[in-house]
Design brief:
The complex is a heterodimer of chains A (about 250) and B (about 300). With about 250 residues, chain A is mostly helical. Chain A contains 11 helices and no strands. Chain B is α/β, with parallel strands linked by helices. The longest helix of chain B has 16 residues. The C terminus of chain B is likely disordered. Chains A and B meet through α1, α3 and α4 of A and α2 of B.
Chain lengths: ~250, ~300
């Protein structure tokens, strides 16, 4: 076996041998699917039955995945297993890359299931609506979740590497996703412009769910197209991870 | 073999390890002794490449730890038995660690059996007793069948049975030709296990040599003598032996108690006490490290500038 497969195997065992990641996965799956069903079963004209709108609740799953990525990484600093990992892999970077590979692979699969699951359940709940995937934008809304979830996992690992503490890192990602991104838009004047550059809004723009919640706020026209927004979101996630790796590789463990 | 050369590590103002040079040979148990805060754990982390030294080098069989391929196969270490996720089973804990270095699950089951944890392999570690956690840590160190083993305070918190088990394990590992490097702040524990000693205080080397030499060094002893006729005894001892007087007693060295008793009798000095002081290992260790205790009890209140402490 090569070093890479050894390290991937080690990180896979780590991720699936404690309970928290499994709970996170269950919640990350049930929450968006459940809300989607409720939205489509109960909503009247306020939620038009479009393909993009089947993905409105996926943000819940994304946030729980962020929690999973943070737990899988930051808890290693808290419990000392990061030191054992570095004892086994003194160059450190390969072990961290293996971790992000496993966590983001889990994210990609989760995104795939959440994206198609939400779309499928919505179609079942409203069989009369035309929810077939006709356009590239439709496909981007559903299949694109996989990319968004993958990049979300990368960002979560990066934040955890930078903050090295479960409490700090969880606080940071939850305050960011639940408060800052939501409230920024209400700052008079500049708020709307800053909001258009926030990472998870960028992710929403890519999958086409941004307009639903912010449409009534009359945002200026988006500065980037969907793929531009994906690139922007990817760049932020990658930057967080790379910064986390650089800091972790250099400091005393 | 572990060779440290002029190893130095500073944390801000504090110099934790200061130009430390020592060797731990293969086929021997080397005790690594020092008071709490002497820099033992820091030295261990430097050996394993977890911390980066500010100066100096440390090599394992001639190679820096960070250059080792699959290091668990060369160096096994237990620096802290609490480095594990409490929610993970003991066997899974060993499995992920083994996987990093391509060590098969079969070996995981072997080391679990070696430390007697087979029956609790699936149990989450949070249900392990302190002794069981310590055994799991030792199993982790043994995974790669390494030539060099490092243990930081392995008997801390163990019951006598556990201590005896570890002592026997360390000796058998050394007997197989491995390098065994064990830290402790308790000398008596080491005296029963180690053949070689490295003693440090405040990050500096105080003693390196064999346990036998260390014991010989400590067998130097004196005789304590008390008498109401101090002047007579003083006159009799002068020129015959070295002595000091403190608290109304004489401390005599260079003469045994038989000769001192005879001298005192001839001088007409009544003796209230004539007791040989046999140096103990513990006393010798305390003498050696007294200067080097990081926070001596008496110095706690004194306002020593931090730059002084750092020296």
């Amino acid at each position: 076996m090569t070093t890479a497969t050894n390290l991937l195997r080690a990180e896979r065992i780590k991720l699936f041998s404690t309970r928290a990641p499994l709970w996170c996965l269950a919640i990350a799956l049930i929450a968006p699917l459940g809300f989607t069903v409720l939205f489509f079963a109960l909503a009247g004209p306020e939620i038009p039955a479009t393909v993009a709108n089947t993905q409105l609740a996926t943000g819940n799953g994304r946030t729980v995945l962020l929690v999973l990525a943070v737990l899988a990484t930051a808890s290693e600093f808290n419990w000392g297993t990061m030191r054992l990992t570095f004892q086994a892999v003194p160059s450190r970077v390969p072990a961290l890359v293996a971790k992000v590979a496993i966590v983001s692979a889990v994210g990609a699969v989760l995104g795939l299931v959440v994206g198609f699951g939400s779309w499928g359940l919505a179609s079942l709940v409203q069989p009369d609506a035309d929810l077939s995937l006709h356009t590239a934008a439709d496909w981007r809304s559903v299949l694109g979740q996989s990319l968004v979830f993958l990049l979300t996992a990368v960002a979560g690992v990066g934040v955890a590497l930078l903050l090295r503490s479960v409490a700090f890192a969880l606080t940071a990602v939850l305050v960011w996703t639940q408060l800052i991104e939501g409230l920024m838009v209400f700052i008079p004047g500049v708020g709307k412009h800053i909001y258009q550059w926030l990472p998870f809004h960028a992710a929403d723009e890519f999958v086409g769910t941004a307009g639903f919640s912010t449409g009534p706020l009359q945002l200026p026209p988006p500065p980037l197209g969907p793929w531009g927004y994906l690139g922007y979101f990817a760049a932020i996630s990658a930057a967080l991870f790379v910064a986390g790796v650089l800091v972790t590789a250099r400091r005393d463990a | 073999m572990i060779e440290a050369t002029a190893l130095t590590k500073r944390y801000g103002e504090t110099t934790a390890v200061n130009e430390l040079t020592f060797t731990a040979r293969s086929g021997r148990v080397t005790g690594f002794l020092g008071p709490n805060g002497a820099g033992k754990s820091t030295t261990m982390r430097l050996i394993l490449g977890l911390d980066t030294p500010d100066a100096g080098t440390v090599h394992i069989d001639g190679v820096a730890y960070r250059q080792l391929k699959d290091p668990l196969r060369t160096v096994g270490a237990m620096l802290d038995a609490t480095w594990r996720h409490p929610g993970r089973g003991g066997r899974d804990h060993l499995r992920w660690l083994a996987a990093t270095n391509g060590i098969p699950d079969k070996r995981v089951d072997e080391v679990l059996a070696l430390v007697g944890l087979t029956s609790v392999g699936k149990t989450r570690v949070l249900q392990y007793s302190l002794g069981m956690q310590q055994r799991l840590g030792i199993a982790a160190a043994m995974l790669g069948d390494p030539r060099v083993l490092l243990f930081d305070e392995p008997v801390n918190g163990l019951d006598p049975e556990g201590m005896a088990w570890i002592r026997q394990l360390l000796n058998s590992l050394a007997a197989e030709g491995r390098t065994v490097f064990v830290s402790s702040h308790l000398l008596p524990e080491m005296a029963q296990t180690a053949q070689d000693l490295v003693v440090i205080g405040r990050g500096r080397l105080i003693y390196q040599g064999t346990m036998d030499d260390f014991v010989a060094r400590t067998s130097e002893h004196g005789v304590r003598v008390r008498t109401p006729h101090a002047d007579e005894l003083r006159a009799a001892l002068t020129g015959q032996a070295e002595f000091t007087e403190a608290d109304g007693a004489f401390l005599v060295s260079g003469l045994d108690s038989d000769r001192i008793g005879r001298l005192a009798f001839d001088a007409g000095a009544t003796l209230h006490e004539l007791s040989p002081i046999t140096g103990t290992l513990e006393q010798a260790y305390l003498d050696l490290t007294r200067e080097a205790v990081e926070f001596p009890a008496a110095a706690m209140q004194s306002a020593v500038p931090s730059s002084e402490v750092a020296k």
